[in-house]
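Researcher: Here's a chain I'd like modeled. Treat it as a single chain, no partners, no ligands.
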Amino acid sequence: MKKLYMVLVVIAIALVFVLRQQESDTIIIYSSAEQFRNDELQSQLNKKFPELNVRVMYTPTAKAAAKLYVEGKDSDADIVLALETSYMNKIIDSLADIEGYSKADYLPGFGPETHNNKFVTWERQAASIAINPDVLAKYNLPAPTSYEDLLDPMYKNLVAMPDPKSSGTGYMFYKNVVNMLGDEAALEYFDKLAKNVKQFTESGSGPVKLLNQGEVAVGIALTFQTVKEINKGMHLEVIFSEWGSPYSLTGTGIVSGHESNPDVIRVYDFLVNDFIYYDKENFSPERIMKNQKNLIDNYPTDFDYADMTGIDSIQEKERLLSMWKF
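Model: Modeled as a single isolated chain. Structure tokens:
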């Protein structure tokens, strides 16, 4: 019995050693992108690097930023992907220098040098007004054409907006209104808008879900998410206000100290010089690179981008969120 016990102990120790070794050999990517995009990335990584153990972990924006800010070089993450650039700037001291890694031909103002060669621009996420024409018809209401229209009492309990404190989509809308009206008038605007809002959703995709369910008629949503539902057969429409399409940027970088692993560099090279094109062409098509293709059906092209001055500033974001009361 004693010998059996000793054998079991030895086996247990060996298993722990093997598991820890496997864990240390795993290349971990913290991704704040949507799960369907992460699934495609994981699939392509498995095919590209069958000899490596690469794991794409969905990590919400705020959680990823908080972990990396606290853990720094000691983080279990090797690469951070699709994190809002305001948060990338907050953790910039925890990121490795990636100068020369990206071969992408970026539009002016989007290249790695814009971010002090600490990360590349991964995408531009743009928002718009999404509507459900069936719900509007049910209440005999016209479609809104401006943000001012959303304040009309006829839309009471028929509007959905992501919460800026938990959603980048909500924050970009908030920031655009501040840029156009100034702090005081913007806060007054949202005081009025709140009277019509049925729900400030936790996630950016929340308004689209409520539109699909027929619970609201109007939502502030990422354009590509709305178009994705339209292409699945949902009766939704996209409207741009006279202020243009608000947007934010996300970035992708290597955690400082982890660039010494050549396999991490191989994976990063694949991300920023290969998969980035697939992701833009099929999932998140707002232009950041020259000659960028868009393979998504029904994607709108006749619109301007809004004034998003300061969208990259974490100090500005924290200042504005401290004033948000809903």
